[in-house]
């Protein structure tokens, strides 16, 4: 909005200086024309430089721009005594008056500069009066009128800016609510996808290991390694488009001696289809691993930037380097994980290295049709697509347009009322003896005031003016124009006695603000046509008189038409542009929020598996642990039970705690264990964190039970107790592992008691509800 207002002010002032200056020269004597031109031409050149500065703002310091604006005022003021007569006075008053108004928009964000230029305009008017009429005191009426104009223009800007800022805040609040909803929906969908992946990979593998011996386990190592890779993959980036900058921030650097410190320089956000995005991410991860293994250094630089409609990512190190041509074909770290992966999604990758000179790996993705194809191919079932900008764009544009329209109507209504009662009323009272008849002009004034009050009543109540009321109001305003034009002497048209000519257009603009500018232009044409007809019916005016009327028409109706053009541009140009920018920015923010949440969720999930599941898969995948070992099978059974409890956590059931316990029981029953489950008391609500801590010790004991176990759930008004008794817990390690599980607990306030007698193990998890909860479990 500020940019549009600045352009409006510069163009308005330059146009007025050009047109009014030309008409002022026409009205001057022939002998004065050369000197007047010598003053006005530099003013026009200064306006031209100011227009050029709109296209190249960095080339012109603010001090120079302010000096150019002040020079226009000074040169125009000096032309007043040169031109002389009514034409010179009217021209200078029009140019300076419009200029000081335009300055409030050109320098809207720097009100001190705008006020200083307005004060300079007042000084120029006084100087022009003194030089053109020596010995006479300057006329204060134009100064008062200029002060009113400057005050109204600044007030109008503040009103529109306040509504625009309110629109920004409200749109931001709505966008934040949508972002939270989209992020929550994406997290739920990704959680379901992650649980499904966990169920189909690690859970199934561990369950098969726990259930038998004497098999051919040759399939297990590669399967365990694949499961481990699936668990360590970053979920949530499988949607149609991702922010590559956020994704590259998640590249693992390794740990301990194998850690590579990455110096990341990424110009983000970088929106890219998920297929090439994930290919680059996985390739960078593999390249960082190669740095740790082979480069002999522990530092690397990661850069990413846009190139045309594509993206370039580069990883470089200053290590020992190598000859890429000498790498055997069976080594697929470069050919498969880096180059082949990018070729598969339509991109490219290259490795540049020489012994002793370090290594540089570069990934390139080119946008266009291939980007769409790769992005479409990257969709996964159950994972939400990123939010689209178009639905948000329509709603945001409609809202911003409504706020801008409301602010503009308030500003125009204020100008109409203040101008009518501060400027026009005085003219009407002073020139009563001029009108023929005077009562018609007074009635027209009252009618115009009634139109403003009627329209303002609708506006202040937040309602649109009904079409019928608007039609009658426009007809009344046009009738006021006709009455005032034909009851005023022709020689007084657009002069000091013509109070209606400059105020009628503001009332019409207030009524027609929501329509296209051509409608308002037609009204102004009719208004000017009525006044011109009244003048020409009494005879054609002279060239000088025509020039003076033309200057007055430009300063009044021309300015009003330019404001109408500005309002149309704000409503139909700036508002859609702002809505598009806001929607695109919000789309990126939502994507970043979703990616951040999913990355954080992934880290939490992976951290929960690190102490138990991951070591099992690593050991099984690399042959460190044998599925023939009974202890290994028991550990796999425990982890399978824990995972089944995790799957049951999201079920919509009346008793989630019992549902999760039954999930654990079903796992061990598949292994031939007999389990009896008993419930005492009235079930109630238990937070999910507490349920995890209550069930986990039971899952550990059940997973290590060989034959029979008994699980009991007891509900009391203030506590929930879950106990398990195993008749033959393997090697008594269940109590130790249950203790370790409890030590990993959060602040869930769950206490675990353990007792061992011979081959029997009894474990009880107890949670006492805080007294302030107020929930009755009886």
UniProtKB/TrEMBL annotation:
<keyword id="KW-0472">Membrane</keyword>
<feature type="transmembrane region" description="Helical">
    <location>
        <begin position="520"/>
        <end position="540"/>
    </location>
</feature>
<keyword id="KW-0808">Transferase</keyword>
<keyword id="KW-1133">Transmembrane helix</keyword>
<feature type="transmembrane region" description="Helical">
    <location>
        <begin position="59"/>
        <end position="78"/>
    </location>
</feature>
<keyword id="KW-0418">Kinase</keyword>
<keyword id="KW-0902">Two-component regulatory system</keyword>
<dbReference type="GO" id="GO:0016301">
    <property type="term" value="F:kinase activity"/>
</dbReference>
<keyword id="KW-0812">Transmembrane</keyword>
<dbReference type="GO" id="GO:0000160">
    <property type="term" value="P:phosphorelay signal transduction system"/>
</dbReference>
<feature type="transmembrane region" description="Helical">
    <location>
        <begin position="546"/>
        <end position="571"/>
    </location>
</feature>
<protein>
    <submittedName>
        <fullName>Spidroin-1</fullName>
    </submittedName>
</protein>
<dbReference type="Pfam" id="PF02518">
    <property type="entry name" value="HATPase_c"/>
</dbReference>
<feature type="transmembrane region" description="Helical">
    <location>
        <begin position="143"/>
        <end position="164"/>
    </location>
</feature>
<feature type="domain" description="Histidine kinase/HSP90-like ATPase">
    <location>
        <begin position="283"/>
        <end position="364"/>
    </location>
</feature>
<feature type="transmembrane region" description="Helical">
    <location>
        <begin position="90"/>
        <end position="105"/>
    </location>
</feature>
<dbReference type="InterPro" id="IPR050482">
    <property type="entry name" value="Sensor_HK_TwoCompSys"/>
</dbReference>
<feature type="transmembrane region" description="Helical">
    <location>
        <begin position="472"/>
        <end position="490"/>
    </location>
</feature>
<dbReference type="InterPro" id="IPR036890">
    <property type="entry name" value="HATPase_C_sf"/>
</dbReference>
<feature type="transmembrane region" description="Helical">
    <location>
        <begin position="404"/>
        <end position="423"/>
    </location>
</feature>
<feature type="transmembrane region" description="Helical">
    <location>
        <begin position="33"/>
        <end position="52"/>
    </location>
</feature>
<feature type="transmembrane region" description="Helical">
    <location>
        <begin position="112"/>
        <end position="131"/>
    </location>
</feature>
<feature type="transmembrane region" description="Helical">
    <location>
        <begin position="10"/>
        <end position="27"/>
    </location>
</feature>
<feature type="transmembrane region" description="Helical">
    <location>
        <begin position="438"/>
        <end position="460"/>
    </location>
</feature>
<dbReference type="InterPro" id="IPR003594">
    <property type="entry name" value="HATPase_dom"/>
</dbReference>
